[in-house]
Amino acid sequence: MNIVETSTDRLSKWFWSHTPVTIQRLRSQNLTEANWQLCQTQERNHSEYCPAFPEMLELELTKACNFMCTHCGTHGSSDQHRTNNKSTPIDIALLDQLAQDVFPYLRRISLVGEGEPFMAPRYLLLHLFKQLERTNTGLDISTNGALLDYELMFAMLPVLGDICFSLDAATKETFYLVRRSKDFDSVIETIKKLASLKQYALSDRRRFQIQLSFALRKTNCSELIDFLRMAAELQVDGVYVRQLLVHFPSMASETLIDKPEILNPLIEQASREAEKLGLSVFLPALINDSSHVIHSAPVIEVLSEAEVPQKQVPEQPLDANPQSKSRVNCAFLWRCMGVRSTGHVFSCGCLSAPLIGDIKTNSLAEIWNCETLRDMRKRLDTEDPHPACSHCWYREVSYFDSFEGSDFSLQNVSQPKEKTYDDSSFNSKDEG
Asked: Which of 231, 126, 115 is nearest to 169 (CA)?
C-alpha cells in the first residue's frame, strides 16, 4: 500500500536530520544570566546609570509591509505605504555588529517595528536566525503571518520563544475592512501549521508560544467574543486585546476609550468567555474614575545551553536602596531598547519616544546610558516625568509588572480591571 508523504513529513525528516542549538534546555551560568540578574537589580533600584545591558532589543529589520491596515501609523495611507516600501532593510553589517556587541548579553530579540518582519530579504532573516543560535538568544516576533512559510518556520524553531499574529478580526470580511487584505484564511492555516510543529520542539518543559492580537475598535468590537472562541479552537497560548492607537484624525471615531457604555460590558463578557474557554487573555482595563490595576508582564523565560564568550559586565555602582513595588514602572527604561532598520535607536515603544542615538556612530553601550535615557529614568517616578513618559500608551494599558517578570498567560482573567485613561496617550503626536 502506498502511503502519501506530506510536506510536513518531509520537513520533519529535514528537521531531525539537523542538530540545531536549542534555547529550550537549562543553561549553565553565562553572560546572559549574569546580565539578566544585574538588569533586574537596576530595575528594582530605578538606577539612573545602568552597567548591564537591557534584557531585550526590539529590532526592526525593515519598514516595508505587505498590508495596509487602516489604523497603522506607518502604512495606513497610500503615500506612507509607498514611501516605506521603498526603504532599504537593515544593513547586514549593522546586524552583525549588534550580534557581536550585544546579542550575547540579551535574553531575547523582538522583531517588531514600522514594517512586517517577514518582508525583510530571506537571506537577512536566515542570517539573523543563525546569529541568534550562535549567541543563544531567544526570538520573539510580531507578524501579520501572511508571508510565513515552512522554510522560515523550521529555520527559526531553534530560537523561537514567542510569536504573535496580529489578526484584529474573526471573519475574513472584517479582516479585509480593518487590514485591507484577503489573506485571512491563509493566515489561519499558517497558524495551524506552526502549532503543529510544536511536537518538534526539543524540550517539553518550554515550547514556543503562539499569541493572537486584537486591536479593539468600533469596526471589529462585535467580533471580540467570536475571536476568543476562534483562538480557543486554534489552541493558541494566549490572546492580547488592546485599545486602538489613533494615528489619523479619521480613526478618532473608531476608538472605544471614550465609550464606556460599549467597552465595559464587552470587556466583562470577554473575561467571562475566556474563563469559560480556559483561554489565557489580556484585556484592556474597564473605564472607571477610581481604580487602577497593574497586570502581569508578557516576559518570556529564555533558556539556552551553549557556551558564550565569558566577558565581564562592567562593574559600576548601583543606587543604594531598592524601592517598593508601588512606584511607577516601565517596560523599557531598564529592560529594552528599540533599534530601527536605519540604525536609529529610540528610548522605547511609546508614540512620542525620543531618538537617543545611532548605532552607526555610537555603541549601544554608550546609547544605553546617554543623557536622555538617564534623565527619563531619573524623572519617571516624580511629578515631573519626561514628556514621553507623561503620555505613554504602554503605561496606560498597564500590563507590565516590571518586577515579577511573569508571562501574561498566567493572568487571572476574572480579576477586576478598572482604570482612568489618559486619552492623549493613545493619539499619535504626528497625525497627518
From this structure: 231
Q: Is 398 left (phi over 0), alpha (psi -120 to 50) or beta?
A: left
- Is-contact 60 91, C-beta < 8 A? no
Residue 108, helix vs strand vs coil: strand
Using DSSP bridges, classify how beta strands 336-339 and 344-346 pair: parallel, antiparallel or unpaired: antiparallel
CA angle 236, 73, 125 (to 5 degrees): 55
Return mean pLDDT, the chain. Answer: 78
| pLDDT value at residue 425 | 56
The distance of Cα 226 from the centroid of its chain, to the nearest Å, equals 24
Q: How confident is the model at residue 163 (pLDDT cuts 50, 70, 90)?
A: very high
In tens, the pLDDT along 30-43 reads 788 889 888 888 88
- Angle of CA points 402, 373, 213, to nearest 5°: 45
- Alpha-carbon span 428 to 426, nearest angstrom: 7
Cα angle for residues 312, 316, 317 (degrees, 5° grid): 140
Predicted confidence (pLDDT) per residue in 220-239, tens digit: 999 999 999 999 999 999 99
Alpha carbons 336 and 36: distance in angstroms, whole number: 12
Number of residues written out for the chain: 432
